[in-house]
Amino acid sequence: MEADGDGRSHVGILSLLAVTVGLPYFLLSTTGPLLQAWYARRFQNAMPYRLYALSNAGSMFALVSYPALFEPFFGTRRQAWMWSAAFGVFVALCVLTALRSGSAKAQETPTEAKETPPGARLYCM
User: Fold this and answer.
1) How far apart are CA 122 and CA 117, in angstroms?
2) Which of 108, 92, 90 is nearest to 41 (CA)?
3) Per-residue buried b or exposed e for 25-38, using 16+ beta carbons within 10 Å of the residue's own CB
4) Are the C-beta atoms of 24 and 85 separated by less than 8 Å?
5) Cα–Cα distance between 77 and 83 in angstroms, integer?
6) pLDDT tens readout for residues 3-21
7) pLDDT single digits (tens) 14-55
8) How far apart are CA 30 and CA 89, in angstroms?
9) What number of H helices and E strands is found in the chain?
C-alpha cells in the first residue's frame, strides 16, 4: 500500500486488520457463552462454569508456551496456516456441538426460583 498524503493507507491497514484479526477474534470471543448454553442444554445437571476455568488454563498455556514452542520453530507463514487450520477445526467442532445440542430439550426454569445465592461448594464440583 502506497502512502497517500490524505491518510488513505491507514484506512486500508485498519480494514485489513479488522477482517484478518478482528473478525476471527470476535467470533472466538463470543462463543464462550454460546457453548455454555449448549453444554447446559445437553447435560442438564452439569455446571458449565468450569469451562471458563479450562478456557483460562488453555489461554495461559498458549501465552507461556508460544515463545518456547512455536516462535523459534515455525515461521510466520506456517503459523498463519496452523492458525487457519485450527480455526477451521474449531468451527467444525462448534457446528457438531450445535447439531448435537439442538436435539436436546431446553431446561425448563421453575416459576419460583430459590433466592439463595450459590455457595462455594457448588462451584468446586
Assistant:
1) 10
2) 108
3) eeeeeebeeebeeb
4) no
5) 10
6) 555 557 888 899 999 988 8
7) 999 998 888 888 888 888 888 888 887 788 777 777 877 888
8) 17
9) 6, 0
Q: CA separation (Å) from 15 to 42, 85, 87?
A: 39, 23, 20
> What is the Cα–Cα distance from 36 to 118, expressed in whole angstroms?
18
What average pLDDT does this structure show over 73-91? Answer: 91
**Please, where are the H alpha helices in 30-114?**
31-42, 50-65, 76-102
Q: How confident is the model at residue 81 (pLDDT cuts 50, 70, 90)?
A: very high
| pLDDT at res. 85 | 94
Which contacts of 78-87 are long-range, i.e. CB under 8 A and separated by 24 or more positions?
Answer: 87/24, 87/28
